[in-house]
Design brief:
By secondary structure, this protein is mainly α. The chain has one domain. It has five helices and five strands. A three-stranded antiparallel sheet has the order 4-3-5, with no helix packed on it. A two-stranded antiparallel ribbon has the order 1-2. α2 crosses α4, α3 packs antiparallel against α4 and α4 runs antiparallel to α5.
Length: 180
């Protein structure tokens, strides 16, 4: 639901109102954002350079919420571009290039917004046994109870992913409204 729920809702809304280009753009933006986030996470860990937290640029460990790398950011752009290409292929429009750019930008910025949320409000916990930060609560993978060290208790990774999706949808809709 966190990654695809909003997209599914927008797809249903579009099936009811197929003449609405704005719903289509919002759907494509949401999907571009969650795909960009997935690609940046999966490929960003391959970076030989340590990630930096998006809010302060301090070096952090791989896998830290809010950490970004150049490889991860390029991967995010590629993930958003793949969705954008598929979107303009399956929704042909005379102004296909503008749509492509809007969707890629919405996807990339949505993914970066995910990193900002992860660095600022996502709940992070501490495992005293492993001496390690984790997103897992109430138990770490080792079986030890974790304690919250920062963030908002109700903002888990699913909430952050939904925020990413929502930002991608809003940006694509907004860019489309202003530019098209």
């Amino acid at each position: 639901m966190a990654n695809g729920g909003l997209g599914a809702l927008l797809a249903v809304a579009y099936s009811i109102q197929p003449q609405s280009e704005w719903l289509w753009l919002a759907f494509a933006g949401a999907m571009a954002a969650v795909n960009a986030d997935t690609w940046s996470t999966e490929l960003g860990v391959l970076s030989p350079v340590p990630p930096r937290v998006i809010t302060s640029w301090n070096k952090v460990e791989r896998g830290t919420s809010g950490g970004i790398t150049l490889i991860g950011t390029l991967a995010a752009t590629g993930g958003a571009a793949l969705i954008a290409i598929m979107a303009v292929v399956f929704y042909p429009t005379p102004d296909w290039f503008s749509h492509l750019v809007i969707i890629v930008l919405a996807g990339l910025v949505g993914s970066l917004f995910d990193s900002v949320l992860g660095a600022t409000i996502q709940a992070i916990f501490w495992c005293p046994t492993c001496s390690k930060e984790t997103e897992r609560h109430p138990l770490h993978t080792c079986g030890t109870h974790t304690n919250q060290v920062r963030g908002w208790s109700w903002v888990n990774n699913d909430v952050v992913n939904f925020g990413c999706s929502l930002m991608g949808a809003i940006l694509a809709w907004g860019f489309g409204f202003v530019l098209l």
